[in-house]
Amino acid sequence: MENSKIAIVTIGQAPRKDMAGDIQQLREAGLNVDEFGVLDSLSSSEIAALSPSSEDTDVLVTLLTNGQQVKLSKQKLMPYIQKCIRNLHEFTWILLMCTGDFANKLSFKNLLLPDRIMTNLVKGLHTELALGLIGPEPEQQLTVAEKWQKAQFDVTFSASSPYRFDAQDLLTKAQQLQKHGADLLILDCMGYSTTMKNSIKNKLNIPIIVPRETVFTILKAIC
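Above: the chain's sequence. Below: its structure in token form.
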């Protein structure tokens, strides 16, 4: 779509240095891309106040511009996400860079949600796949598993953070999920890269999907 304006919104701070290469590829493909961070205008103490409490069951994980990984309460963060997106109404597309479940929580006509894209994509591949899921942190197991179980998949979860990337740890977790019977491995966070996928794919006998790679491919196709 000629002259499309695309807002890429991280739930952390922008620009995301770990995504710089992929975002540059979008620009080289002719896309008009701007980056925004939900936490951009917040102070360190304000960000700290968004940390999950012991009662929080939905934890999000993201990155600050200084390279620090932070955990956030989705419930506490939602008003900031909504405000950020409302301020971007002039963009053709708004891509929220998070695979968390935001269905029925954010309703903007031009909003692209990776969770919605990914669950429908995998359902389109096959409805009876056993999924191996890897997310950043162990406390995300419940919400990540529930998201895919709502889509009628049998799932097994493990954790290996892309923001503290350890190729051997990721491989070990992936092999355990494969041994457990996974037909397909999903690195379920926008923080995982194609490079991370490539570091383990030749040592597995099951395919791997990386949401960032998939969503950016779709973005280039529709724009």
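The helical segments are 20-28, 44-48, 74-86, 114-125, 141-150, 167-179, 194-198, 211-222.
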